[in-house]
């Protein structure tokens, strides 16, 4: 009886601790040149537009998996692993064929998500200054850009991303990519983008991707996007 009781208590303790240990494990990137940074805000900071559970799973599991898989793919390619991620992605066709697909998928996933967490935040707002002027000049104004962006995101078949890219002269353009591909692979700079993989929205929006795309604008951190725009014009924007 004593042994059974001890076993039962041990089992209950394991069940109680499992979520905490599991979350910690998924939040840590395995050893390697690339690391998973913590979110710059709480999991529930973007609610109700993006729920806390989605943020936890998206960052701590999906993004962490991309980082871990990227480090694994690079472990026998020391010289390549020393390069910045944007440099690796810009020459993806020259990456050894044996690891090219793994690096394309997981390196792209790491770059896309790193950008994604940075350009979101609570509070909303609107673009201002040179960024607002560029949106008016190149994309027909904020409302037209949002409508075109949402339409492009809705047209992505299966999983992928929709981006606004920025050239060194500050010119903006809209494009979408499948899977975890990124404009970085075409030596372009990403100003901002939205993830239209189902794991980014399914818990709240189910199959209603257009509703997610529309709601997502409420969590765009336009101050951060403005900083990225200025960095791009100065030749200092990386991921």
UniProtKB/TrEMBL annotation:
Family affiliation: Belongs to the iron/manganese superoxide dismutase family.
Organism name: Variibacter gotjawalensis
Pfam families named in the record: Sod_Fe_C, Sod_Fe_N
GO cellular component, one term: cytoplasm
Protein name listed in UniProt: Superoxide dismutase
Gene of this entry: sodA1
Cited InterPro entries: Mn/Fe_SOD, Mn/Fe_SOD_BS, Mn/Fe_SOD_C, Mn/Fe_SOD_N, Mn/Fe_SOD_N_sf, SOD_C_sf
Domain Manganese/iron superoxide dismutase N-terminal: 34-120
Enzymatic reactions: 2 superoxide + 2 H(+) = H2O2 + O2
Binding site for Mn(2+): 58, 113, 195, 199
Function: Destroys radicals which are normally produced within the cells and which are toxic to biological systems.
Keywords, alphabetical: Metal-binding, Oxidoreductase, Signal
Keyword Metal-binding included in the entry's annotation: yes
Taxonomic lineage: Bacteria, Pseudomonadati, Pseudomonadota, Alphaproteobacteria, Hyphomicrobiales
UniProt KW Cell membrane keyword: no
């Amino acid at each position: 009886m004593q042994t059974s009781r001890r076993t039962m208590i041990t089992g209950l303790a394991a069940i109680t601790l499992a979520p905490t240990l599991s979350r910690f494990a998924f939040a840590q990137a395995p050893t390697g040149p690339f690391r998973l940074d913590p979110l710059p805000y709480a999991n529930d900071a973007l609610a109700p537009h993006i729920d806390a559970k989605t943020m936890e799973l998206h960052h701590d599991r999906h993004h962490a998996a991309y980082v871990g898989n990227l480090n694994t793919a690079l472990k026998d390619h020391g010289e390549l692993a020393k390069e910045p991620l944007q440099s690796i992605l810009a020459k993806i066709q020259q990456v050894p064929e044996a690891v090219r697909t793994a690096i394309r998928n997981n390196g792209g996933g790491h770059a896309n998500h790193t950008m994604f967490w940075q350009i979101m935040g609570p509070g909303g707002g609107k673009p201002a200054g040179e960024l607002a002027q560029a949106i008016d000049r190149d994309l027909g104004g904020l409302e037209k850009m949002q409508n075109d962006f949402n339409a492009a995101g809705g047209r992505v078949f299966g999983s992928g991303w929709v981006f606004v890219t920025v050239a060194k002269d500050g010119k903006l353009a809209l494009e979408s990519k499948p899977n975890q591909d990124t404009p970085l692979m075409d030596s372009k700079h990403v100003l901002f983008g939205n993830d239209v993989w189902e794991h980014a929205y399914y818990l709240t929006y189910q199959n209603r991707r257009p509703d997610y795309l529309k709601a997502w604008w409420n969590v765009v951190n336009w101050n951060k996007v403005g900083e990225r725009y200025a960095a791009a014009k100065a030749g200092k924007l990386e991921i």
